[in-house]
Automatic annotation (TrEMBL):
InterPro entries to which the protein is assigned, alphabetical: B-gal_small/dom_5, Bact_Beta-galactosidase, Beta-gal/glucu_dom_sf, Gal_mutarotase_sf_dom, Galactose-bd-like_sf, GH, GH-type_carb-bd, Glyco_hydro_2
Record-annotated Beta galactosidase small chain/ domain positions: 696-956
Any one Gene Ontology molecular-function term assigned to this protein's record: beta-galactosidase activity
Catalytic activity: Hydrolysis of terminal non-reducing beta-D-galactose residues in beta-D-galactosides
Pfam families named in the record: Bgal_small_N, Glyco_hydro_2_C, Glyco_hydro_2_N, LacZ_4
PROSITE patterns registered for this protein in UniProt: GLYCOSYL_HYDROL_F2_1, GLYCOSYL_HYDROL_F2_2
Keyword Hydrolase: yes
Keyword terms of this UniProt record: Glycosidase, Hydrolase
Gene3D superfamilies xref list: 2.70.98.10, Galactose-binding domain-like, Glycosidases, Immunoglobulins
Family: Belongs to the glycosyl hydrolase 2 family.
Name of the protein: Beta-galactosidase
Origin organism lineage: Bacteria, Bacillati, Actinomycetota, Actinomycetes, Kitasatosporales
An annotated GO cellular component: beta-galactosidase complex
Entry's Gene Ontology BP terms: lactose catabolic process
Amino acid sequence: MSLRTTHSVDVGHVEDVSPGSGALPPRAWYASSDADSLSLNGSWRFRLSATADAEDESFAAEGFDSGGWPEVRVPGHWVLQGDGDFGAPIYTNHRYPFPVDPPRVPTQNPTGDHLRTFDLPDGWPAGGGAVLRFDGVESCARVWLNGTDIGEFKGSRLAHEFAVGHLLKESGNVLAVRVHQWSAGSYLEDQDQWWLPGIFRDVTLLHRPAGSALDFFVHASYDHLEGTGTLRVDSDVDGRVSVPELDIDVATGESVTVPVRPWTAETPRLYDGTLVTEGERVPLRIGFRTVVLADGLIKVNGTAVLFKGVNRHEWHPETGRALDPETMREDVLLMKRHNINAVRTSHYPPHPAFLDLCDEYGLWVIDECDLETHGFTEQGWRDNPVDDDRWTPALLDRASRMVERDKNHPSIVVWSLGNEAGTGRGLTAMAEWIRGRDRSRLIHYEGDWNCRDTDMYSRMYADHAEVERIGRGLDGGPLKRRQLPFIQCEYGHAMGNGPGGLADYQRIFEAHDRIQGGFIWEWIDHGVKDERFGFAYGGDFGEELHDGNFVCDGLLFPDRRPSPGLVEYKKVIEPVRIEGGDASGTVRVTNAYDFADLSHLEFEFSYQVDGFPTGAHWLTVPSLGPGESAEVKLPATAPDGQGEEVQWTVRALLAEDTPWAGRGHEVAWAQQTVTPRGPLPAATGTRPAADSDRITLGPASFDARTGVLRTIGTTDVTGLRLDVWRATTDNDDGASWQDDVRNGVEWRKLGLHRMQHRLDAVELTDDALTVRTRVAPAARDVGLRTVYRWTSDGTRLRLTVSVTPEGDWTVPLPRLGIRLGLPASFEENVTWFGSGGEAYPDTGAAAKTLQWHTSVEDLQTPYVRPQENGARADVRWAEVGYLRIEGDPEFWFTARQWTTEQLDAARHLTDLTPGDTVWVNLDHGQQGIGSQSCGPGVLPQYRLRVRPAEFSFVFSTVDD
Ligand code: GAL
């Protein structure tokens, strides 16, 4: 089975299913207080070969001259460096980008030789040993120090350590690492992400003083009935454990119970301690908490938790999976600021520093093993490594490397065996090993719906109806599963515009105890920064097989700007519910935290008239405990709107600075209309006048032959007509494997992107201009009879559009409204009263309705693959440049510097350039968004059914 070579290059390990040789047993990852360490990150000499055996191993010998080699940055992926000279990234979702013939890999196996010399720093102690630690190398490495081969390993996102004390010199040490992109390990690492070879996490030399701590296990449980914590630190090397704040000073292995404050994701109380062995002091950050499966529920400290989570891949648009500490912190801060309380480390253990941050800031963590064999689904899971005993040592190696490295993090409450690896004996072996080693956490794995090895029933992308059935316990399944809690380890596929339907899921999650929440797929778009495209996705590097922009499906854009999806999620999962109370002027406040009371919040109250704030008051809300509610009296009486709409807004704000956001940060909010706006002016009474080529009506002029609007006041208007098309979103298009109707596909089949407008009549009467049309696609008998009725009172122009469907429409419409072109100079000035951010029928939870002002450019949402975006919902009125538009009823408002057709054709944002027209859509209806790019489509209540409709706009000119 192993690779044969004609010369003496040892590459047999590359295709060997074993995890490797030479490394030390896995152990806890920690930073010593006093033992020396030397970071070997930085610039390394680098040589790229096309095959594993192209070059012999002489580069590893002392004295080798690498002067002519270029350099790479470590940590880093070579394919993201070298300006294209070092190959390119490949993106596939689940298909292996090489023939499936385990454990064989292609002859063409990009191989990077990395070289670095180093001196020991002054003062590096003479005695003791030393360990060389690699925190992450993709996918297989062999290591030499000073010419000696010290071992080889696989398991890309796991730490590997080697004892090197006996090889070190004071100066001129030569560290050589040969990294192969493909190896037997690649079969276990088929996660949906870019294939990115390289030494992408830290390389560190650790001094190991005599008597240093080797491995240790902090057991810190919490008894919620007694309010006490029990601490015991098991250590390979005996020592003492002290926690001054708790007056703890005990020997390792000894238990001590004292009153403590527990650790939870909401109240992440950590106690600083120290483990002192003869040769070393190790700082401990201890969080007391107990995780159990009780009453069929996941309970922490006696309370069932509701995960409001995200799936996080490690990603940076320039450095790939090589993340700097600031980026990790930014992720945690962004999560906390968006009410997220849980993270699944999909689909591999993250850099350990990320877990430190989860402990510190408070996030529940599902730590997932570096294991996915999804590509075997292409062959009905035949030869799946997780069901083949030859691979079991590699699987156990991965499980133990995860657990041993990460076991001292209080934030980790669940171990996950991996992702999408089918089912098999290897997974059972992993679960058994984990249970034997750590009984203090639960086990997750989604792939086995019978829950043979797991402590919870987990699914991905189950639709609302199924989740509801599961919540009610009507989903059947084996007895074991029926007794387990349920989580959606992935849902709400955040690809492009969306996901839709989150609020509907949340309602179901909260209605049933058995459902303990979910994790949005996923945290961040994996777009690669690229001069050609802004951000590149699959196919942009000429890959033979790829899955396009399926790699851009996050709540954050690649540069970590929050997408509307994240803002929506924040609102949907807000930990305080504020609802309009009774008519006498109250508001109902409910604490939706699992552990915290509301004393950390203050509540701001204000009225708005026509969307404009009128001054703020404080609302006095009692410090409710979890699950409690109160009716609170409004602090002021509503102003007289004099015909304008009057609403109130309540905002729950942080009352004090926290480590993750400052005082005043908004946690939750609600709005309610108290007095609706008055009716729109009828705008009638003026008689239309016609000459040979022009009709005038009040401030407007029309083409006499076609009845098409030309001007309003001094503003030129182009192309005003009915519009039903939108540049399909990833969720409209749906994934190819979806077996239900994919609207985006049906719409195009039907021809909704090329509707023809037939003119039937232009009629002038005493008080109106009426234009009768039929709007329909070629080759089909369906159509929309569309009547535009124009009236005016002399200064204002009113349009009423009536739409009557004809024929048998079997799909909803993308949108229904009018579009019109305005002068490009109007770009800079847009004001409206409606939702502030992007909103569609099923993504509008976070639509805060106020008066807003911005430019057309800033109304765009920069989805990496351009698509319909940027609609503002519930718009009462909008002003674009000099044109004011009022709607009856409220409308969806969109404006762009390009047409929908241009947006539809674009593959990257760089394909879009502003033209000489601002295109405005005023929509009476929009189809919902759903989540069909990898999940359920649009729920029935958010579909834009084809039926008769009538809607009006009143146009006028804004004064200078
Ligand atoms: C899941 C998988 C994820 C990702 C997602 C779609 O099946 O676990 O890794 O591929 O679908 O984006």
